[in-house]
Amino acid sequence: MLDKLFKEYAIVLGSNSPRRKQFLQELGIPFVVRASDIDESYPEELQAGEITDFIAIAKSEAIALESDNEILITSDTTVWNNNQSLGKPADRQEAYEMIKSISGKEHEVISSVCLRNKNKTRIFNCITKVTFSELSDEVIYYYIDNYKPFDKAGAYGIQEWIGLVGIEKIDGSYTNIVGLPTTELVQELIQFIKE
């Protein structure tokens, strides 16, 4: 089934994220990138995975499919904390406030993935629970100033320095926290081409 997936289908990654590109490369999946910039705002009443589902679908709908054998993958990730979605921080102060709000606590990282070809669309999401140790202001500002996490939901990248010094516990998929739940993605891709 994987041979069929890799040989008979053209995978299109609808993202410029270097982390998502790297995961597909490590999975051995040939792909091309065809991304588009969209307005990532969403209706206020949406909660948790509804938000990432909405944005992943919007990203998918903004990209044209060029042939019948293409499968488009789009994704969106957020940090869900205290019934709030922590997206990408606008500046240093907002990054500090986001990291401070998850310091010493458990939060959820939610990624939604949309698979689409010319005939159908499939959406799924994955939730991972992450617990940070108590982080001092010195540690938080050191991370922000040296790693500039302004392109990351919740103002942190677990694969960076902050993940090495600040993460106490992970319950669920590690790759989901980075931005693409790879185990679930492969399972869902196989199901998608079987249907």
From TrEMBL:
<dbReference type="GO" id="GO:0009117">
    <property type="term" value="P:nucleotide metabolic process"/>
</dbReference>
<feature type="site" description="Important for substrate specificity">
    <location>
        <position position="77"/>
    </location>
</feature>
<keyword id="KW-0546">Nucleotide metabolism</keyword>
<feature type="active site" description="Proton acceptor">
    <location>
        <position position="76"/>
    </location>
</feature>
<dbReference type="GO" id="GO:0036221">
    <property type="term" value="F:UTP diphosphatase activity"/>
</dbReference>
<protein>
    <recommendedName>
        <fullName>dTTP/UTP pyrophosphatase</fullName>
        <ecNumber>3.6.1.9</ecNumber>
    </recommendedName>
</protein>
<keyword id="KW-0963">Cytoplasm</keyword>
<dbReference type="Pfam" id="PF02545">
    <property type="entry name" value="Maf"/>
</dbReference>
<dbReference type="GO" id="GO:0005737">
    <property type="term" value="C:cytoplasm"/>
</dbReference>
<comment type="function">
    <text>Nucleoside triphosphate pyrophosphatase that hydrolyzes dTTP and UTP. May have a dual role in cell division arrest and in preventing the incorporation of modified nucleotides into cellular nucleic acids.</text>
</comment>
<feature type="site" description="Important for substrate specificity">
    <location>
        <position position="159"/>
    </location>
</feature>
<dbReference type="InterPro" id="IPR029001">
    <property type="entry name" value="ITPase-like_fam"/>
</dbReference>
<dbReference type="InterPro" id="IPR003697">
    <property type="entry name" value="Maf-like"/>
</dbReference>
<feature type="site" description="Important for substrate specificity">
    <location>
        <position position="19"/>
    </location>
</feature>
<keyword id="KW-0378">Hydrolase</keyword>
<comment type="similarity">
    <text>Belongs to the Maf family. YhdE subfamily.</text>
</comment>
<dbReference type="GO" id="GO:0036218">
    <property type="term" value="F:dTTP diphosphatase activity"/>
</dbReference>
